[in-house]
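Task card 7
Instruction: Convert sequence to structure tokens.
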Amino acid sequence: MIDAHPTSARRRVLHYSHHSTGLGHLVRSLAVAGAVADRSDVLFCSGGRVPSGLTIPAGVQVAALSPIGTDERGELTSLDPALTLDQAWERRHRQLLRCFDEHDPDVVIVELFPFGRRKFAGELLALLARARQGRRRTVVSSVRDLLVDAHPDKQRHDDEAAARLDAFFDAVIVHGDPRFARLEETFHPSTSSAVPVYYSGFVAPSAAVVVGRRRPSQVIVSAGGGLTGGRLLAAAIEAHRSILEPMGATTRVVTGPFLPAESYAGLAERAGAVDGVTVERFVPDLASAIAESAVSVSQCGYNTSIDLLRAGVPAVVVPYDDGGETEQRDRARRLASLGVVQLLPSAQLTPDSLANAVLEAMARPARPVTLDLDGASATAALLASLEHAPTAVAR
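Output:
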């Protein structure tokens, strides 16, 4: 039991999250932080760019670390033009430890590590070592429903993660429904970790889906953060031009805030030459926008998948799978088996194949499914119980 503060005092929570290519980790982590802030003082340490228009939950204080992202080759790079990558690393390391020392948290939440974020191990291991010094604190790994399951050194990766779990963590909270996927399906260490695993349910936004006037001929196309969505968005515009426009359909393209400016300009120019296509950067409530449409076309990231479940409309998904990524493909296959989406593998993506998939989806209603989407509030309750559990011990 943590005994540094009177039981009547609000807990202090430090929540670390990083996003490089998309918005999924950021949006999910902020939703969790917002729920935790109802009963705790939360300092949210963000390692990626926070796009304008994204709402920060009430009661959450954000500390922006020097942002590091990925370039077009997938290599890490400093997103601050005034800093080299080495300088950004050094500054982040100092910032993160200063945040810890000044906030003096009772609970530390680390998003994805040690299951992922290996390139960020330097700053995270320093943070975790600091958390294990002095008084007792609860340290939790916060992880999505599915892990990437195709690392070339997968066994060594999983064994290292299990060792780090045992060394630094009190619990793992999986933000998914165990009926949909279990951690052990994508995590296979040679020796099991002794750290307990809890399932919170999927983390969905707290706001209800607001359905305005349904547009029976509208197709909405989205690509998460947008950094990896250019090919899908371009194919959607061409699909509209060749097949959907003659049918009188409209296509609403939401590129995502991280689509490079030159790519956005190119898409907007192409869309301007076609009747019935609009292009937008960002929609704060994508689930409601999807619910107003006849069909959704998207990749299959965590947040987009939840938006599809909440909106309940027919959907075509083209999962991102470059560079050995398996997470979106696995999620898409599971959702397709439930009848929630129609899966179009990225290797088969063409304007014609996409248009045909949209037409098939229009003709077949989405099948409603019941999965736990109350993960944010459940996580807050889990943290409150873990703080007083015997596993929260000094190591």
